[in-house]
Amino acid sequence: MNTKTVITGISGCIGHILYENLKDRWEISGIDIRESRDLPVILADINDYDSLLNTFRDAYAVIHLAANASARASWNDVFVPNISGTQTVFDAAYNAGLKKVIFASSNHVTGLYEQDEPYRNIVAGQYEGITPSGIPQIDHTMPIRPDGYYGVSKAFGEALGRYYSERFDMQVICIRIGTVSKDNRPRSVREYATLFMHRDLVTLVDKCLMEQNIKFEIFYGVSSNKWKFWDTAHISDCLGWTPEENAESFRT
Question: What domain range includes position 104?
């Protein structure tokens, strides 16, 4: 099996985590606008179509992480990297003959559900009267409710992924990533519900790379946290994968 995998935005936090934990199983190279002494980085902008095309040739998959990841970013700030850049990545991947794109989407595609109960109280750490097993899980079938232009840009990436999947016969898996922290622990009350711990991140991406039959899917990337409100049963149904970590282990 061809194991050559390209990670865009490899110099970021998630790119580092994936490279360090998958490099023994997958032949990984990366594209980034930042240099790194520790990572195999090709310096290029994701809007540089020719550089992407050359890098993607003979690869099996691309994990597309590169983006302006600020949830509060303006439209002008997300348009070039997250809209134009994502389209350039998909187009170069298709024309280079890649069969798989794993797109780093975001929980912010459905972020405004957190204005509603019980999610509003959960992210504030107010758990009285809420039973963890009774929390309605937000899943991939529910209407999108972006909470900013960043969330809108990630919803665009998902729509673009479905288009390339159906129109050009590519395998596209979108992961609505929860909270990934460099130190692998919650930094706020909200993150006891939303944390996506490193081991779960790595094993899910590895499963997605190995999967051959899925055409297009949207998954929520979150650990098995006591107060989580994003559905992971759909991933179990599709991939046989279940998160194992729980942010509650950090509760003091």
Answer: 4-250
Cα–Cα distance for residue pair 223/61, rounded to 1 Å: 24
CATH number (domain holding residue 119): 3.40.50.720
Q: Transcribe 22-78 into DSSP letters.
A: HTTTSEEEEEESS--SSS-EEE--TT-HHHHHHHHTT-SEEEE--S---TT--HHHH
Which residues are tagged catalytic? 150
Instruction: Report pTM.
Output: 0.97
Count the domains in the chain. Answer: 1
Q: What one-character DSSP code corresponds to residue 175?
A: E
Name the nearest CA neighbour of 153 among 75, 230, 62: 75
Angle ∠(29,35,36) on CA atoms, nearest 5: 70
Name residues of the chain where pLDDT drops below 70: none
Half-sphere exposure of 151 (CA within 13 A, CB side): 15
